[in-house]
């Protein structure tokens, strides 16, 4: 494996705001229609999640308190997702027990061997658990065929997401940390954990952070294309395999597909006495190169 809006402009490095600005502005004048936007989710005080699935193990009566649209005056607000001890709890034999509250896109936004671009903002609510924990805030996943999982008598461990972003506490930076990890094998038994692509980069609770993602996942070694930016800072480009070539889920025609589309929220190792919350805003997806958008044009200079 090789690693080589608010699109809020203050979040981008200052140098980008002076380099090539005229050319970027010309591109920005030709907006590209997105395939999905997030704004409608919190257009009203009650979340509109018709285009999103909620974690299956989360009790229906808990939805209203875990997923909300807090408002300040009449301004639309971000979607707030909260996880409490025991939410969608999974004892996870062979791994650490976990709990989660996530939303997952119903629409097929990320496909094998096809490019997708998206961006979003997130804000970690204080206090944030100050002890090392596998805390995932975004993931895309091709699961293992159910009959092949060890829990069902097969030979494959349960699938890790092939692309995820973590924001758990890291002692190296003495703060919550942005970490990007990937996973891809031609044999489901090759390793059990993801490979770090970038991070840990310190995050601040109560402060908005901006993420941009360009992804073209492939089950062929060397054919993927993944790059992620945090507040305009580029992660190394990754071109290895993403997903499970031998045992990943297939559609009715037997073709590999991504059954767990982009998820946003909190998935963590179980924390018996800890409540955590995160906010998301300005999530937009494209299936064509969005370099006509000013923020993307500027980011291209860090590629």
Largest sheet: 8 strands, antiparallel
Q: Tell me what portion of residues adopts beta-strand conformation.
A: 25-35%
Distance between the termini: 18 Å
Q: What is the count of helical runs?
A: 3
Count the beta strands: 18
Task: Tell me the overall shape.
Answer: globular
Radius of gyration: 19 Å
Instruction: Determine the fraction of residues in helical runs and give it as a percent range.
Output: under 10%
User: What's the helix-strand series?
Assistant: HEEHEEEEEEEEEEEEEEEEH
Return the CATH topology: Jelly Rolls
Which class do the helix and strand fractions yield? mainly beta
Provide the CATH architecture: Sandwich
Low-confidence stretches: 1-31
What is the number of independent domains? Answer: 1
- Name of the CATH class: Mainly Beta
Residue-averaged pLDDT: 86
Topology:
Layout: H1 21-28, E1 36-37, E2 52-54, H2 63-66, E3 67-68, E4 79-83, E5 98-105, E6 116-124, E7 135-141, E8 163-166, E9 169-170, E10 175-182, E11 184-185, E12 195-202, E13 209-216, E14 225-230, E15 233-234, E16 243-244, E17 260-269, E18 276-286, H3 294-299
Parallel strand pairs: 11-16
Antiparallel strand pairs: 1-18, 2-5, 3-4, 4-18, 5-17, 6-13, 6-18, 7-8, 7-17, 8-10, 9-10, 10-12, 13-14, 14-15
């Amino acid at each position: 494996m090789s690693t080589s809006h608010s699109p809020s402009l203050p979040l981008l490095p200052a140098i980008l705001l002076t380099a090539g600005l005229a050319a970027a502005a010309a591109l920005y004048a030709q907006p590209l229609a997105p395939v999905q936007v997030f704004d409608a989710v919190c257009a009203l005080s009650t979340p509109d999640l018709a285009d999103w699935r909620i974690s299956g193990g989360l009790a229906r009566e808990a939805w209203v308190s875990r997923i909300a649209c807090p408002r300040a005056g009449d301004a639309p607000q971000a979607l707030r997702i909260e996880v409490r001890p025991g939410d969608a709890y999974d004892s996870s034999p062979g791994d650490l027990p976990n709990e989660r509250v996530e939303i997952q896109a119903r629409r097929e936004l990320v496909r094998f061997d096809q490019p997708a671009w998206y961006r979003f903002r997130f804000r970690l609510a204080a206090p944030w658990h100050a002890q090392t924990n596998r805390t995932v805030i975004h993931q895309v996943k091709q699961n293992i065929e159910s009959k092949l999982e060890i829990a069902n008598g097969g030979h494959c461990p349960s699938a890790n997401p092939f692309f995820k972003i973590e924001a758990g506490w890291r002692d190296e930076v003495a703060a919550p940390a942005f970490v990007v990890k990937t996973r891809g094998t031609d044999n489901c038994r090759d390793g059990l954990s993801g490979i770090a692509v970038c991070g840990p980069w310190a995050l601040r609770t109560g402060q908005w952070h901006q993420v941009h993602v360009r992804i073209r996942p492939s089950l062929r070694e060397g054919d993927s294309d993944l790059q992620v930016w945090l507040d305009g800072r580029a992660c190394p480009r990754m071109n290895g395999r993403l997903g499970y070539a031998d045992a990943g889920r297939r559609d009715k025609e037997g073709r590999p597909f991504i059954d767990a589309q982009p998820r946003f929220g909190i998935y963590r190792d179980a924390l018996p006495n800890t409540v955590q919350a995160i906010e998301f805003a300005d999530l937009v997806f494209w299936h064509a190169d969005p370099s006509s958008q000013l923020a993307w044009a500027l980011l291209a200079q860090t590629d």
